[in-house]
Amino acid sequence: xxxxxxxxxxxxxxxxxxxxxxxxxxxxxxxxxxxxxxxxxxxxxxxxxxxxxxxxxxxxxxxxxxxxxxxxxxxxxxxxxxxxxxxxxxxxxxxxxxxxxxxxxxxxxxxxxxx
Length: 115
Fold this sequence. Notes:
The protein is 0% helix and 60% strand. It is mainly β. Strands 2, 4, 5, 6, 9, 10 and 11 form a seven-stranded mixed beta sheet that branches. Strands 1-3-8-7 form a four-stranded antiparallel beta sheet, with no helix packed on it.
């Protein structure tokens, strides 16, 4: 019902930057919030950043001040600007859309930070 195109992952050196993008399409009704999550090997998936319909944002403490989430409502797109990357940011990053009370996940994009 909802499809995603995630992009922007890759290999970057520590202290570098990457920008992730997620574009949703399909049966999108009421967008409650858009978010980014990540899962490192051997660890549970964690919420990284979220932005709601009122553009209020929230971040996990470990990325506060380094990452920034934004959205383009007209395009059903949201972004994660990641600066000052650290090796511990290495993970698969997933976008998530809360649409009319239902969660939808993107396919994930790998981010690898080399030290």
